[in-house]
Amino acid sequence: MLGLNENKEQNELIITHMILPKQKGTSDSCTTMNEEEIFDFQDQHNLITIGWIHTHPTQTAFLSSVDLHTHCPYQLLMPEAIAIVCAPRYNETGFFVLTPNYGLKFIANCRKSGFHPHPTEPPLFMVAEHVKIDSTASLEVLDLRIGKS
Fold first, then answer.
1. What is the per-residue DSSP string for 60-104?
2. Half-sphere exposure of residue 22, counting CA atoms within 13 Å on the CB side?
């Protein structure tokens, strides 16, 4: 989960926090647990969710069919929402959104679950062009997986 504060003076959203929730995972999936801990932290720090981050340890940075479905509700609630994919084997980090004129509606109407094929044309996702990286900005990381079972 990515939390942010809003800079109303400059009309921008700034990612200030990365929250790693308790989770259960397999080699190709992850399920969040105890989500109320995330909401409590966000409420206490006046944060909203701007997106999510995950890895593709053995693949490149892209959005899989499961990723597309995971991201869809984020972007339906907030058009600026982003999906970040870190692909360490290829030293890639991708910042993605569903295409607003096609992908968002297509995925919102898709009723399949799990990994399944989608058409590649027209594109369902694209690079999030509104994202600007500031390597000098601070980021607070809250790892809710640590110290609790």
1. -S---HHHHHHHHHHHHH-TT-EEEEEEGGGTEEEEEEE-TTTHH
2. 10
Where in the sequence is the domain holding 6, given as residue range(s)?
Answer: 2-143
Residue 148 lies in a domain: no
In a domain, 88, yes or no: yes
Cβ neighbours for 2, distance < 8 A, ≥ 6 positions apart? 15, 17, 18, 19, 49, 50, 51, 52, 53, 82, 84
SS3 110: coil
Mean pLDDT, residues 16-32 taken together: 85
pTM metric for this prediction: 0.87
Instruction: State the average pLDDT for the chain.
Output: 90
Looking at residue 92, which CATH number applies to its domain? 3.40.140.10
Task: Find where tokens 């991201």 sit.
Answer: 71
Is 149 inside a domain boundary?
no
